Amino acid sequence: MKEILLRAKQLSKSFSNEGAMQHVLKNIDLTLNKGDFTVIMGASGAGKSTLLYALSGMDTPTLGTITFGDQVISNLSQDGLAIFRRDHCGFVFQQIYLIDGMSVMDNVLSAGLLVSKDTHTLVKRAKELFQAVDISEETQKKFPTQISGGEAQRVGIVRALINSPEILFADEPTGALNSKTGLDVLDTLTRFHEQGQSIVMVTHDMRSARRGNRILYLKDGVILGECALGGYVQGDPQRHEKLSAFLKDMGW
């Protein structure tokens, strides 16, 4: 049986929109397991990113509980949530948010120094991660404005992993990239997952979704269905067919 990393019970999120309440998430029960690559899909406005932000402690639910290990994170203060994210989570976004005035290496080290002051160990880990994502030493010295979008997103992945997070959260990580650079980023995420990294990714892209072993389909704030794909095998037609059939049943 897989180890449960995070559990949500009766998770709900509502917003006030011009005086009317908008219910974005509705009584969601969900577990995230260690070692899974969980993909959240659904139409625009289904609540995908809202769910990811709630699960990761970037936002607080209106109702319900979110538990990480023995800790109920949904009850934490904003400072407590910041500490939880720092110590346990990594984030990759569609917009990469690298700091222009810092080198690629310093962007990564600045995130690592929030947790550890052991610069020698941090530099060693950063170099290992950069090598794993094919970012050269020359590129590590450059500034974000001097590198390509695909390189920047791979730097973003290194930054997200520098503190060895239990869960990596990714919100449309290939959404701003062209087909080739997007594929490079997906290959990078897949390699880290195969090494044991737990990942939760929001996407509207079927090519990206095929990388997950667990697909959740969100509609109108509820999980309408779930599909188990197993481990990723490149070019497996049955994987594509199974996901296509599932999405069709979901009304994709």
Protein architecture, described:
By secondary structure, the protein is an alpha/beta fold. The chain has a single domain, classed as P-loop containing nucleotide triphosphate hydrolases (Rossmann fold, 3-Layer(aba) Sandwich). It has 9 helices and 10 strands. The strands form 2 sheets. A 6-stranded mixed sheet has the order 6-7-8-3-9-10, with helices on both faces. The protein has a 4-stranded antiparallel sheet with strand order 2-1-4-5, with helices on one face. Helix 7 links the parallel strand 7 and strand 8. Helix 3 crosses helix 4, helix 3 packs parallel to helix 6 and helix 6 packs parallel to helix 7. The longest helix has 16 residues. The chain is globular, with a radius of gyration of 18 Å.
Strand tally, please? 10
Structural class: alpha/beta
Strand content: 25-35%
User: Major β-sheet, in short?
Assistant: 6 strands, mixed
The CATH fourth-level homologous superfamily: P-loop containing nucleotide triphosphate hydrolases
CATH-defined fold name: Rossmann fold
Q: Taking all residues together, what is the mean pLDDT?
A: 94
Along the chain, the helix and strand elements come as EEEHEEHEHHHHEHEHEEH
Radius of gyration: 18 Å
In CATH, the architecture is 3-Layer(aba) Sandwich
Shape: globular
CATH class: Alpha Beta
Put simply, the count of helices is 9
Q: Termini, distance in Å?
A: 31 Å
